[in-house]
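Entry 14. Structure prediction run on the chain below.
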Amino acid sequence: MPATTPAQILQGAALQQRFQALDSFLIEHQALWRPRPFVHYPALPWEAGHPQLAAWLRAQSLEHAEAAHNQPHLLQAPAPFPQLAALADELSQLGELPQSPALVLPTRFSSDVPGRKWQQIDAFARSLSFTHTPQHWLDWCAGKGHLGRMLAHTGGSLTCLEYNPQLVSSGQQLSHKLGIAAQHIEQDVLAADAAKQLQAQHTPVALHACGELHTRLLQLASQVGCQHVAVAPCCYNRISTASYQPLSASAQASSLQLSIDDLGLPLSETVTAGARVRRQRDQSMAWRLAFDLLQRQLRGIDEYWPTPSLPPAWLDKSFANYCHDLAALKQLPTPAKQDWQQLEQQGWQRLAEVRNLELLRGLFRRPLELWLLLDRALYLQEHGYTVRLGTFCSRQQSPRNLLLLAERQQNLPTASVDNSVDRI
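Output returned:
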């Protein structure tokens, strides 16, 4: 792909072309992005082959890593970093979907929604343009149905599917209060009977439905023959299988096999955390990395051992008590006398190194996410849809800003729906 290629909405043959380019890129360099610096100690497998880059990254500060986190491709690091950054950035270019003018809604529509979430809902809704006007919106994993109500405000029926009964009840009350004729249904969308909720005249929409929740929608909607589908995926690692199950023929033919850890890479970008949350995150990670050194000593085994997710209150303890309590939780021997201050400092030093080494993996966040989106786009294309893939909001509003728009080609037969399918 030439460097002068402008960012474009992907559609038609370009979907397959970009997928193949990304597939080759990710396969060729998987030794660089698969190993997780948090887990590997004292060195990552790729460091022996790129000693200058490794030494340079390890010498940088935690503040440096924080500053470069969202734009690692701009970093002036030793080779092969700049070359990889340029190619990753080029392969990740994607155009913005055109947006309709902003709707003027009564303020009560957004009164129950956090500001950033409302911006995402607004941008998503304004990016939905189809050849035929949708007549019946179906808000998939709807929560309280804020997105569906915005879409149905200008006309059309609305059905909202949601697993949480409290959200279903709250959403029904809000729809009634706002004068939107909506049916809010309690439904586990991964259950076998979820297929009964979709009909060909429905236009299903899903904003940030996690993992199998949105892949299930794509499968059912294509089986039923829904006229339109609009999906902005999230949390690709929320799957019930040990590894990723590709949807399209192209991804199934690829030699790229993705673990749950691999699927978490696109989600490692953060743009919305406040200063307090970042401090808490850093302390938690530094203490975990320090405890990792301790557990290797206590177990007599020099390898990483995962620790469970801990309540924030654990960070209110002294570092020594944190380690004693975590050792007890993991059923390890009681730690002998330690220089706790030195051990904690080692944890913070490791955190700086880990964060800077992660910058190399960061180059592959967007390419991997786009590979996953293109798998979904090609799947829909194989099932008779015309598909467009582009961005619907800024990265600052949400790093998960990729949107699939699909329209079913006319006069195609619909497949019979397999209601026996349980969880994917």
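DSSP finds 15 helices and eight strands in the chain.
Filed with the rest of this week's runs.
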